[in-house]
């Protein structure tokens, strides 16, 4: 599953946001739409899109209904970096097939995930990354 980290400009910004939302070793991400494939998503990953690229993910622990009619995607607190992969922004969340997902915990010894988004975008446009 993918979700845009609205307002985050880079990986450290996403890390700060996640750290600020940790409660009891879990992070809750609110959504309006209930996934039809919830059962198969539990144990999978929520991939975060920052500046048009997937850069990190969290394990989905469960889904919980909220009193206001929305839904919490309850994730593990640990944010795993993934090698950056281009991904268009979207509203809400989208399914991500396993073959298209960067591997969580994959060693990104290239340092690409730490590049400033504008520089990464330029390098990608030149097909250098």
From TrEMBL:
**Per its UniProt record, what InterPro entries does this chain match?**
UCP032025
User: Could you identify this protein by its name?
Assistant: DUF1489 domain-containing protein
In terms of superkingdom, the source organism counts as Bacteria
